[in-house]
């Protein structure tokens, strides 16, 4: 049978989780979000790059392909930005995702 454990106030405080802090997105983060949303919703991007990874940057596709590593490297060369500054978006081909068994 389990015995109750008496925790000191100090130990209870250490075990209590802090509420996460929320900060406002930076202009760069907002731009990344807008570029990602655009790439995921733009019909031309969806058709032209179906089944590929794309890197949207300032509402244009700066790199695309099926190898995410190569796509990211191409985008870094094209923009001069670091990898973590560039969103990579998969453009899903729904017909390819459904395979008959």
What's the pLDDT, averaged over the residues?
Answer: 87
Spatial sequence of strands, sheet with the most strands: 2-1-3
Q: In sequence order, what are the helices and strands, one letter per element?
A: HHHEEHEH
Q: How many β-strand runs?
A: 3
Structural class: alpha+beta
* Helix share bin: 40-55%
* Radius of gyration, whole Å: 22 Å
Description:
- The chain has a domain at 26-94.
- The radius of gyration is 22 Å and the shape is elongated.
- It has helices at residues 9-15, 27-41, 43-48, 68-79, 94-97, and strands at 53-56, 61-65, 89-90.
- It has a three-stranded antiparallel β-sheet.
- The mean pLDDT is 87.
- It is α+β, with helices and mostly antiparallel strands.
Short description:
This protein is α+β, with helices and mostly antiparallel strands and 101 residues long. The protein contains five helices and three strands.
Produce the secondary structure layout.
Blueprint: H1 9-15, H2 27-41, H3 43-48, E1 53-56, E2 61-65, H4 68-79, E3 89-90, H5 94-97
Antiparallel strand pairs: 1-2, 1-3
Key terms for this structure?
single chain, alpha+beta, 101 residues, elongated, 5 helices, three-stranded antiparallel β-sheet
């Amino acid at each position: 049978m389990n015995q109750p454990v008496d925790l000191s106030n100090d130990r209870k405080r250490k075990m209590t989780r802090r509420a996460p802090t929320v900060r406002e997105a930076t202009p760069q983060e907002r731009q990344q979000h807008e570029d990602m949303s655009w790439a995921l919703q733009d019909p031309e991007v969806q058709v032209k790059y179906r089944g590929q990874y794309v890197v949207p940057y300032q509402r244009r596709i700066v790199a695309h392909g099926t190898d995410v590593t190569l796509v990211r490297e191409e985008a870094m060369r094209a923009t001069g930005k670091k990898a973590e500054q560039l969103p990579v978006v998969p453009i899903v081909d729904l017909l390819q995702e459904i395979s008959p068994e």
